[in-house]
């Protein structure tokens, strides 16, 4: 599971993380343990390793979650490949798509869920059916 976010988000990103947590909770225990979640920040200036660590602790994310930051151009390229749109707003927040993506073992998009607080059961069925 991969999603783009930023750690100082005031609303959508914590809900997006909660949606992914709900998705994982629907999986059988063995699938849940094998499923990795990658969150990539598009706030390449403020989301330092310390800020990402604080977000991980605040959100109660276990070792199956990896939080990454990268060069701005690499993050933009990833966003384009996943269909995530974002832009920095005047006061430093970001307007962005609320989307998480399931990738298969080859790194191909297997499913995407758009929106917040929706039904994550279709994504859980796809994820459980993916070959490992």
Explain what this protein looks like in three dimensions.
There is one protein chain. This protein is α/β, with parallel strands linked by helices. It is built from five helices and seven strands; from the N terminus they run E-H-H-E-H-E-H-E-E-E-E-H. It has helices at residues 12-26, 29-34, 49-59, 72-82, 121-129, and strands at residues 2-5, 37-41, 65-68, 86-88, 94-96, 99-103, 109-114. The chain has a five-stranded mixed sheet, sandwiched between helices. Strands 4-5 form a two-stranded antiparallel ribbon.
What is the CA-CA span between the terminal residues?
Answer: 14 Å
Sheet-strand content, in percent, reads 15-25%
Shape: globular
Helix amount: 25-40%
Tell how many strands the DSSP assignment holds.
7
Task: Figure out the total of helices.
Answer: 5
Determine Rg (CA atoms, Å).
14 Å
Instruction: Provide the spatial order of strands within the biggest beta sheet.
Output: 3-2-1-6-7
* Element-level helix/strand string: EHHEHEHEEEEH
The major beta sheet can be summarized as: 5 strands, mixed
Mean pLDDT: 95
Structural class given helices, strands, pairing? Answer: alpha/beta
User: Which parts are unreliable, with pLDDT below 50 for 5 consecutive residues or more?
Assistant: none
